Structure formats: structure tokens, C-alpha cells
């Protein structure tokens, strides 16, 4: 166990020294390459920052306005008929925008229902089975300048629904 802890602590410095050493052996100007990469990284951050701020504001508005609670209570009737607890609806909606905000909702759900409850287990599985659709599309597609997204959104929404269905099924089997 001590060896694994040492390896875990030493892995990143070893990797950095390996990359620098390999660059020197290949007769590259490692420092200039590092500065060029850092400059490109900062330009990428500046390019995606408005999108990140917009997504964070949208999630904040959804949580603060009570819209998620309204959607949850509105959908309660038909979600019970198909076996989806209505408590999962806000988490599923927020997860499409922000994983960290969905995790915050999950913690709130744990406080109310408990982490060993059916709803708690289903929400845990759902968070791992679904993806942050709009975050992924906006950040990744913006950084590589993809304009024609085709069937990405419908496919991602279908995959999210499949993840929700899988979470309900798996939580019921535990």
C-alpha cells in the first residue's frame, strides 16, 4: 500500500520530467513550446468563458426561480405511472447543464430521502449514467469550431433518457 501511495504522489513529477527530458533529447526548445501551449490554453479559456458564465447563470436561475420544483410537481402524475420518482426530474434537468449543480441537488436529495433509499440510489446511478449535454456541446464544439452539430442533441437526449431508465432499473435491483 505504501508503494502505491508513493507511486501516486510521484507519478505527475515523473511524467513532467519524462516529457521535458524527451523534448531535450529530441532537440526541441521545451520552454518556448511550453509558453506557446500556455498562450493557446489561455486563448481557449477566454473563448469559452462567456459560455461557461451563461451556463452557470442559467443553472442558478433554474434553481432560484422555483422552476425545477414546478416542473417536478407538474410531472409527478405521469412519472409515477412509468416508475420514475418525481424527485429525479430536477436532477435530470440540471445534469444536462452542469454536473456540479446536479451533485448539489443530489446532496439535498440525500438529506431529504437518504442515500440508501430507492430515490437516493436511483439518483446516484442517474448521475453516473447521464451526461452534461449542453455543457459538453457548447464547450467542446466551440473550442474546435464545430458549427453543424447534426444529430448530436437528439442522440444525447436519447442517451440521457436511457441513462435515467437504467438508473431506475438498477436502483430497483439493489
UniProtKB/TrEMBL annotation:
InterPro entries: Gate_dom, SpmB. One of its GO terms (cellular component) is plasma membrane. The chain crosses the membrane at residues 6-25, 45-68, 88-107, 119-141, 153-172. Keywords: Membrane, Transmembrane, Transmembrane helix. Residues 46-144 form the Nucleoside transporter/FeoB GTPase Gate domain. Pfam families: Gate. The keyword Transmembrane helix applies. This is Spore maturation protein.
Amino acid at each position: 500500500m505504501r508503494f502505491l501511495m508513493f507511486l501516486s504522489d510521484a507519478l505527475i513529477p515523473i511524467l513532467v520530467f519524462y516529457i521535458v527530458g524527451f523534448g531535450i533529447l529530441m532537440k526541441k526548445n521545451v520552454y518556448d513550446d511550453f509558453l506557446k501551449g500556455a498562450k493557446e490554453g489561455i486563448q481557449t479559456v477566454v473563448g469559452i468563458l462567456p459560455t461557461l458564465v451563461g451556463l452557470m447563470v442559467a443553472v442558478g436561475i433554474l434553481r432560484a426561480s422555483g422552476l425545477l420544483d414546478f416542473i417536478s410537481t407538474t410531472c409527478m402524475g405521469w412519472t409515477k405511472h412509468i416508475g420514475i420518482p418525481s424527485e429525479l426530474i430536477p436532477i435530470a434537468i440540471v445534469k444536462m447543464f452542469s454536473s456540479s449543480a446536479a451533485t448539489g441537488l443530489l446532496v439535498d436529495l440525500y438529506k431529504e430521502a437518504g442515500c440508501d433509499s430507492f430515490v437516493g440510489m436511483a439518483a446516484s446511478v442517474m448521475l453516473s449514467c447521464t451526461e452534461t449535454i449542453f455543457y459538453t456541446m457548447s464547450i467542446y464544439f466551440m473550442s474546435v469550431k464545430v458549427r453543424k452539430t447534426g444529430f448530436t442533441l437528439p442522440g444525447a437526449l436519447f442517451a440521457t433518457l436511457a441513462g435515467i431508465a437504467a438508473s431506475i432499473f438498477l436502483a430497483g435491483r439493489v
